Amino acid sequence: MLTPNYQSVENQSMPSTEMPKSGPIGLVIASMIGFLVWLVFILLFALYWSERYNLFQNVIVFIVSLSITGILIGLMWVIWGRNRFRMWNNWE
Question: Which DSSP letter does residue 19 get?
């Protein structure tokens, strides 16, 4: 007669309370790529398109492009952090 192994069934049915050990490596890479794309854009702008604009307009393009890049990278991190906070908050 086969006897069931209750210990293994019990361990399988219990939800895991451990947080996933995956780190934010994808976000770190995406942040670096985003920053590099911004640098390439600024260099191309300075080389090819900046002659059409005066100094004030070039500074505005620099600030706006940096702001957009920062907002996009920041939103990625906020969304990731919000999901981590929810998992940690429900961990009680």
Answer: P
Write out the residue range of the structural domain in which residue 80 sits.
Answer: 25-89
- Tens digits of per-residue pLDDT, 26-60? 999 999 999 999 999 999 999 999 999 999 999 99
Instruction: Report how many domains make up the chain.
Output: 1
Residue 10 lies in a domain: no
Residue type, 26: G
As given in the structure block, the two tokens for residue 90 are 């429900």
For 27, the enclosing helix (H) or strand (E) is helix 25-44
Could you give the CA distance from residue 41 to residue 75 in angstroms, rounded to a whole number? Answer: 20
Backbone phi, then psi, for 15, in 5-degree steps? -70, 145
Would 59 be classed as within a structural domain?
A: yes
From residue 66, alpha-carbon distances to 39, 63, 73, 80, 89 in Å are 9, 5, 11, 21, 33
